Amino acid sequence: MPRTPANSVLTASTPASRWLALTPSFISAGCIAVLVGYSSAVAIVYQAALAGGANPAQVSSWLWAVGIGMGVSSIGLSLYYRQPVFTAWSTPGAALLVTSLPGFTLAEAVGAFVLCSLMMVLVAVTGVVDRLLRLVPQSLAGALLAGVLLQFGLQIFQGMALQPLLVGVVCLGFLLMRQRVPRYAVAIALLIGILLSYTQGLAHWQPIRWQLAEPHWVTPTFSFAAFISVAVPLFVVTMASQNIPGLAVLRANGYNAPAAPLIATTGMTGLLLAPFGGFAFNLSAMTAAICQSDEAGGTPSQRYWATCWGGVFYLLAGLLGATLVALLQLIPAVLVATIAGLALLAPMANGLHAAMHEGGERDAALLTFLVTASGVSLLGVSSAFWGLLIGLFVFYGARWRSSKVA
C-alpha cells in the first residue's frame, strides 16, 4: 500500500530525530489518551467478556488481546504513514456484545468476531467501504447505536435503587467534572466511586499480585445464528459509529492516510487476535483527537510520536490484563455498571441526535431504536439485527413510494 504524505501542507517535513520521540508532551498525550480510553470503557469490555461466558483467565486474555492489538496497530500505522493514526477497541461493539452474547457459547462468540473482522477486511480490500456504508443511512446507524446503549443508561438508575448514596455521589461528581474537565469526568467519577466504596464497606482492599496476562486460545465455532445476531450488528456498529468518526477526526486535523488500508489493518488485527478475545478493532475518534490536537505539542507532522507512545501504553495495559481483571473484581458491580452507563451517555446522545436529525427518516430511525432497545429475540436472533432490518425496510420502502409518486 502506498505511503501517503503526513499532511497536504506538511509533505516537506523532515524525518524526526530519535530525541524528538522523547518529547514530554508526546508521552503525556499518549498516556492520557490511553487512560481516558481505558477508564471510560474497560468496564464495558469486562462485562462483554462475562456475557460471553469467559472465566477470569479468559477475561484477562480479552484485555491482553485488545491491548496488544491496539498497541501494535497504532504504532505500526503511525510509523508507516508518519501520521497520528490511533486505533481502539469498539466500545459500542462491546456494549452490543453484553446484550447479544448471552445464549451463545464462547466458541460461537469467537467465530462471530472472526467473521466481523473478515467482513471489515473484505469491504476494505474490495474498495466498497464507502458504498457499503451508504446503504445504512446515518440516522439508522445512530438509532441502532442508541438502542444498544439505552440499557446502559437505565442501569445507572437501577443501581441508584440499590446503592443510592454511592451512585448518586458518583453521578454528581461526573456531572460537575463534565462541566470543568470533560475529558477526565469518567476517570474522576470512577476514582470517587472507588474511594466511597471503601469508606462504605462495599469494597475491601486486598493485596494485588502484579502479573502478566496470558493469552488463552478459544477455537472458533461458526453458526448462522451468531453470524446474524452478533457478527453483522458488531460490524455495522463498529464501521458506522467508530471507523467513520475516526476517519472524520483524522481528516479534520489535516491528515490524509487512505481509509481502505487503515480499515483493512484493523480487520486483519481482529482476525489474528479474535481467538484470544480481540472482538473488534477500529480507528479511534475521541482518544485520537487528544494526540492530534495542538495540546499534544510539536508540529502536526511530528504528532505521530504521540500515538506511538499511546501504542506503548496500550501494550503495557494489555500485558497487565490479569491485574486489571483482579482490580475490577474488587470494585462493586453496581459501580462498574454506573461507570459504564456514564461513559456511554455521550455516544448514546450522539446516536439519538443522528437518528432524529433528518425529519424524513425519523419513522425508520424510531422503529430501529425501539426494536433494538426492546431486547426482543426472535428465532434466536438478537434485537439489534431485527431493529436494523425493520428500519432499512421502512427507510427504503418510503424512498420507493416517493419515487413512484414523483
From TrEMBL:
Pfam families assigned to the protein according to its UniProt record, in alphabetical order: BenE
One Gene Ontology MF term: benzoate transmembrane transporter activity
PROSITE patterns xref list: PROKAR_LIPOPROTEIN
Keyword Methyltransferase: no
Organism in which the protein naturally occurs: Bacterioplanes sanyensis
Keywords associated with the record: Membrane, Transmembrane, Transmembrane helix
Identification of the protein by name: Benzoate transporter
Any one GO CC term of the record: plasma membrane
Transmembrane spans: 26-50, 62-81, 101-125, 132-154, 160-177, 184-205, 217-238, 259-284, 304-327, 334-356, 376-398
UniProt KW Transmembrane keyword: yes
